Structures are given as structure tokens and as C-alpha cells.
Amino acid sequence: MLPLPDTAFDWFDLDWFSYATLRSFEWINPLYLYLLPLVPFCFFLRWLLTLRFRKKLDVAFFEGKAQWHWSSILRYIPDVIFTVFTMLVMVALARPQRTNEVIEQLSEGIDIMLVLDTSGSMELKDFKPNRLEAAKGVALRFIQGRFQDRIGVIVFAGDAYSLAPLTTDYDLLRETIKSIHFKMIPNDGTAIGSALGVAVNRMRESTAKSKVCILISDGENTGGNIEPAVAAKLAQAYNIRIYTIGVGEDGQVPYDTNEKGEVTYVNTRLDETNLREIAQVANGQFFRATTANTLQQIFNKINLLEKSEIKELRFRNTKDYYDMYLKWAVVFLLLWLFLKNTFLTNALED
After folding, report:
1. VWFA domain: which residues (predicted)?
2. According to the model, what pLDDT value does residue 68 have?
3. Helices (H) and strands (E) in the chain, counts
4. Which bin fits 248, alpha (ψ -120 to 50), beta or left (φ > 0)?
């Protein structure tokens, strides 16, 4: 397909007649294209009528019959040229066009901070393959559905660290989340308050219309130097809404396998009270996820609650190309006029 013509002689290119180029056009008057086969048919009909009804003058110059020679075919060249000229005019009358549509998407982005627990209890296998990997998978799918929202990542165990600042570089975020693993924070424990403190510090100067923190944890606060309730009040002061997600089942949960290949279990119980209080203080919601499917549904719900409005601006630029074929038609018309004054034209037949 040819690009937009830039110079005065871009029309002089045989690619204008290629199938790909012709197919790329929108035809405003396609009826003329359907009439194209009538053009050579009319010339053929004219030839038949001339052959049948033309007057013949018998002139005897010599005895015997005149032999046919291939050069006699040359007298049909002007008619072929005029046929092509007529068909090019028909193509131009069909008005080939191309429309380029540019879509710009605008959004008042939301700032979202993902706060993920990497403590030892996230190794429990009531989620497949474990709680941490299930949470990472859901977080990756959550990022895939965002548009122009800045997202950051914080991990915590006994201490809390910011892995990625608020950014729209979703490729970087995906690589960051995939790199999260156990024991990346040497001090084990569950420093929920410290993690929320880091999140508030990262988001307090944000000017986004909505600021959201999503906390994923399976335990009660056992580390750090900030109480979760205090961190929640700080978040509320900076208009940061906190969604807390408690992951894991209560009771006997598979943890690992022993030397004999037998599954070992540990007794666990989620402290919902603390997570509920954090969400309530920070104007968010608490969710409980006992399966990977439930965790995905929770993220889907948060995705709907915190969906930024996307506006689309469409710009349409329509370009006519009939002049390309008119210029070719003029070339064939001039060629036909030239041939009419050469030996190729039979004056007696005209």
C-alpha cells in the first residue's frame, strides 16, 4: 500500500494499480467500478458493428489474395489506449479515499500502592503453589487491566521496603512483582504498620484525584515501629483509601513435606480484627480470601471500585486520491492524441 503522496510526481508509480493499494481505498461512488467492464465491451461492440455494417470499397491492385501480417494489429493500439483512458476516468469518478483515524485516550489517573506481605507464613500451601505466588499472579493481572494509573509496590516482613515508586511503566512493575521472593527481607515478622507508613510516605504528595493502598497479608502485626491504627489515621489524613485483604484459611493448613514425602500441617488463624480496623479508619473495605479464585474476585471488585474514567478523542483525516488516476488518464489521453496522427491510425476506417 502506497503512503500519502508528498511530491508532484508521486502519482507516477505503478503501485497505484496494485491490488493491495486498490483494496486499501474506500470508494465513495462504487457504481462506477461495477461499470468498468462495460467500457471494453462497448469498444468490442463497436468493432462488431463496424465489421458488419461498414461500407467496403473493392479496389483491384493485383491478382491474388493479400496475406495477413502481424503489423496489422498495431492499428488497434489507439483504441486500446482510449479504452484505458476511459477506464481511468471511471476509477477517478468512483472517488477512492483513505481515512486515517487517530484515537487519543485521556484519563485522570489513580495512584495505587500494592503492599504485599512476604513473611514466612505466606509460604503456606492452602493457595497453589503458595499464598505469595497466588497473590503475585493476581497482582500481575490487576496491573494488566489499568490505564494511565500510577502503581507502586511495597513488600514487608519484619521490615518494609519500597520496591517500585508510583509509575506508569507497567513493564517495570511486572518485572518487579515477578522478582518478589521469600527471605528477600532478612528480618522475619509482619510489620503491617511500617508497610502502611512507607505507603503513606510515597503517596502523601500525590495530586491524583484518588489515592488507594491495597494491603495483602495473612497475619497480625508482629514487627515494625508504627502501629497499624496510627498508620491508618495518617492515610486518612492524606485522603488515602486502604483496602485490606486477609488471605488464608483458618485451622490446619499444609505447609511442607517431610523426609518421607508426607505433607506437614500447621495450625493458623487470621486476625481479621486488625485488618478490618485499618480499612474502616482509612475509608476502605476489608476482604477475606480463602482461595485463589476468591482473591481474583476481590481484585476484580477493587478494580471496579477504583476504575479511572477514560475519555477517547477521535481524529479523522480523509484524503481523496481520484487525482492520481486523473493524472494517469491525462497521460493516456495525450498518448492517444499523438497516436491518432501516426501511421497506426487507419484514415480510411475513421
Report:
1. 111-302
2. 58
3. 11, 11
4. left
Residue 138 and residue 76 share a domain: no
Alpha-carbon torsion angle 260, 263, 268, 270, nearest 10? 140
Task: Say how far apart CA 278 and CA 298 lie, in whole Å.
Answer: 17
User: Distance of CA 265 to CAs 197, 222, 250, 320, 340, Å?
Assistant: 33, 22, 12, 74, 100
Q: Report the first-to-last Cα separation within the chain, whole angstroms.
A: 42
**Residue 7: predicted pLDDT:** 58
Location of C-alpha cell 476468591: 294
Q: What is the DSSP letter of 309?
A: P
Helix axes 131-144, 292-305, angle to 10 degrees: 30
In this structure, are 45 and 161 located in the same domain?
A: no
What is d(CA 240, CA 71) in angstroms, rounded to the nearest whole number? 90
Q: Are residues 296 and 325 in the same domain?
A: no
Angstrom CA distances, 308 to 209, 236, 270, stand at 9, 20, 32
Question: Which pTM value belongs to this model?
Answer: 0.61
Q: What cell numbers appear for 283 in the block?
A: 475509608
- CA–CA separation, 240 and 115 (whole Å): 13
State residue 55's pLDDT score: 61
- Residue 267 banded pLDDT, cuts 50, 70, 90: confident
The residue segments making up the domain with residue 84 are 14-55+67-101+319-339
Q: How far apart, in whole angstroms, are the C-alpha atoms of residue 190 and residue 121?
A: 9
Of the two residues 108 and 209, the one the predictor is more confident about is 209
